[in-house]
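Course assignment 3, question 2. Fill in each field.
Student: A.L.
Task: Predict the tertiary structure for the chain below.
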Amino acid sequence: MTDPTDPLRPSLQLPDGRRKVLLHSCCAPCSGEVMEAMLASGIDYDIFFYNPNIHPVKEYEIRKQENIRFAERHGIRFIDADYDVDNWFERIKGLENEPERGERCTKCFDMRFERTALYAHEHGYDTITSSLGISRWKDMNQINGCGERAAARYEDLVYWTYNWRKHGGSQRMIEISKREEFYQQEYCGCVYSLRDTNRHRRAQGRERIKIGVKFYGKDDSA
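Answer field:
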């Protein structure tokens, strides 16, 4: 079991004496370790959930509710932004067939971080960061670039590029997900990711993804 006060965790320091973080969270499995790491270091932060890319809405609601459940357990404020799916489709129009980690993902990250940065600027946060980079399926340089561009719109704001995978972070992410029995999503989130993942599964003779049935430590498909 992961202990948020584990002495082996590094003591984190915000850049340049910053004080207040708005954490863009994509889901509970990715944000669990990020949340516990900041708590262990006494960092003041709130969660901002803005992920209009997630499809279908059933998947979106499951991921959001899992994140809310974990935030409430730790007493962390959870800011629930609008789903805003129509604007997301407009933003990535013409990029439907781009590969994962390609230009479509850049546009998606830009949109999500721009909204995060705007909220942070309007509500007194001096730092933003995201749980997206902890996933080994993501390009950390791509994510950091999008975050830094969004924060650069405001003089009072920075994007914290800390590598959440370091110092055992990736392993603790898995351990926390198993401990909490988080919903175990099987694709990035958008309709095109779902499409491409199911194509890959069919090519391997595997079943299509079943939305809302797979959890760490249990299977609700029965």
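Instructor remarks: The chain has one domain: 17-219. The helical segments are 28-40, 57-74, 85-91, 103-122, 140-151, 169-180, 191-203.
Grade: pending
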